[in-house]
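Data's thin. Show one?
=====
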Amino acid sequence: MRPNELIENWVDCFNKGNAEMISEFYHEDAINHQVTNEPIIGKKAFRKMFENEFNQAEMTCIIENIFEYNN
């Protein structure tokens, strides 16, 4: 899968509000540091974070540009 396809698929899952599907994009040991929150560590924590966020608000991610370098 090319990087731009990965981003498009991630955005599609995000816009569907599907925490289970979007968490599959993350490694078991992934870490996400948000400025105002404690770090999110691990795929299960990512799923829980997205479930909570999707339950709190309807969100839409809009792709403006994807730049991919090709050798």
